[in-house]
Amino acid sequence: MAPGILGKKIGMTQFFLPDGRVVPATALQAGPCVVVQRKTSEKDGYEAVQLGLVEFVKPARVKKPAAGHFQKAGVEPGPLLRELRIQGALGTDLKSGDRVLASDFQVGEKVDVVGRSKGRGFAGVVKRHHFRGGPDTHGSMSHRAPGSIGASSYPSRVIRGTRMGGHMGNARVTARNLEIVEVLADDHVILVRGAVPGPNGSYVVVRRTR
């Protein structure tokens, strides 16, 4: 049993539980994946498994070191290669060439979904940090400004970590403890309860909650 699987975010939908309640859910393409390399504590110093997403990619888009890595394992190059640590018994039975499928997951399991959040570019403090902003009337000239960012006399500098405008989004985000509510094995799709980071079509890593 693999510690996780690679895939893509398809989009959000809704799912009806057996008791009739409707919950928001996200559909994820889960695999199929292939084990590219199995790392062991004896040879590499730690236990891990490298998974590659089985999806056609133009040979010109695969860098030569990565192409050689796939060729050594005897598998076709893919667009995504990720390494998952092995803790406990999960993944100890895997070896190069084994396939990891959506059917390996069960309804009710808890998973963590790792992706990259949507990039928002440069954002101000109201959007980025949810500042309240200044008054809109009575001659105010500070509507969405951050206000004071530090004292002048002491310490005469801006304290590290002060909330200000800046680059927002496009960061690695992990949504934890999401419940699997449906597994569509034939379509390589799993539905998880709640939202996951990233735009539709972005790559994600689904790993079993430790």
Describe this structure in words.
There is one protein chain. The protein has 210 residues and is mainly beta. It has two domains: 4-119 and 172-208, Translation factors (Elongation Factor Tu (Ef-tu), domain 3, Beta Barrel); 121-168, no CATH class. The chain contains two helices and twelve strands. The chain has helices at 64-73, 125-129, and strands at 4-16, 22-30, 33-39, 48-53, 81-85, 99-100, 110-116, 121-123, 166-168, 172-184, 189-193, 203-208. The protein has a six-stranded antiparallel beta barrel with strand order 1-2-11-10-7-12. Strands 5-4-3-6 form a four-stranded antiparallel β-sheet, covered by helices on one side. A hairpin with a 4-residue loop joins strand 10 and strand 11 (189-193). The chain is globular and about 70 Å long. The model has no long low-confidence stretch (mean pLDDT 88).
Oligomeric nature of the chains: single chain
The total domain count is: 2
Note the run of SSEs as H and E.
Answer: EEEEHEEEEHEEEE
The major β-sheet equals: 6 strands, antiparallel, barrel
How many helical elements?
Answer: 2
Superfamily (CATH H level) name of the largest domain: Translation factors
- Rg, Cα atoms, Å: 22 Å
Strand order of the largest sheet: 1-2-11-10-7-12
CATH architecture annotation name of the largest domain: Beta Barrel
Q: Helices and strands: which structural class?
A: mainly beta
Just give the CATH class of the largest domain: Mainly Beta
Distance between the termini: 14 Å
